Amino acid sequence: DNKFAPFLATCIISICRNTRQQLSFYILARDINLFRKNKIQSLQKKYKNCQIEFIAISKQTLNGVRTTPWMSLAAFSRLLIPEIKPDIKRAIYLDVDIIALGDIKKLWTQDLGKHIIGVSFGHDGIDFTKIKKIESVRKNHIYFNSGMMLIDCEKWRKQGLTKKLLDVEIKTRGNRVYNDQSILNIFFQNKYTLL
């Protein structure tokens, strides 16, 4: 949304400056005004290796998902990526508060093995024992951060994961700590590749 647009621009610039390959950015957007959209799209003129497309996320797109004052509808949109862009085989999802310090191709080419997603931990100093208990997550599951994911979109679509994840959202209401991140951890318990 509007308040995250400056962070988004910084994230895009950091990726473009460190990567030579052609890049396609799909912005899952809600309530970004035209001025900010135009400023972000102007980056395509400065960085010839990038293409930017805004994809509107509406309440109808995520019909029935419950939001909170600190968790917007846009945060849940990561669950829709393979369905929104049915022509792509693979995607990198990034929260907008990320800065790339190297070539993103290294992440893009990582082998996911038999898994559908690749993730990182990124939770220094947090004890997840209580959270796992609240969310009925196995004790041996290592909780991951959903702010950066490498997704095999073809496998995701074949297994109908968007619907399954939205079903988890409904079933776990009132028993989640991190909303969309919790949904992903509940569903992908120990079924991911560590990047």
Radius of gyration over alpha carbons?
17 Å
Question: Roughly what is the average pLDDT, rounded to an integer?
Answer: 88
Physical arrangement of strands within the biggest beta sheet: 3-5-4-6
Find the count of extended strands (DSSP E, 2+ residues): 6
Helix content: 25-40%
Structural class given helices, strands, pairing? alpha/beta
Number of helices: 10
Run of helices and strands:
HEHHEHHEHEHEHHHE
Instruction: List the uncertain runs.
Output: none
Main β-sheet, in a few words?
A: 4 strands, mixed
Please characterize this protein's 3D structure.
With 195 residues, the protein is α/β, with parallel strands linked by helices. It is built from 10 helices and 6 strands. Strands 3-5-4-6 form a 4-stranded mixed sheet.
Secondary structure layout plus pairing:
Layout: H1 5-18, E1 23-29, H2 34-41, H3 43-46, E2 50-56, H4 73-76, H5 81-84, E3 90-94, H6 105-108, E4 117-120, H7 129-134, E5 145-152, H8 153-158, H9 161-171, H10 180-187, E6 193-194
Helix pairs in contact: 1-2, 9-10
Summarize this, please?
With 195 residues, this protein is α/β, with parallel strands linked by helices. The chain contains 10 helices and 6 strands. Helices cover 35% and strands 17% of the residues.
Keywords:
195 residues; alpha/beta; four-stranded mixed beta sheet; 6 strands
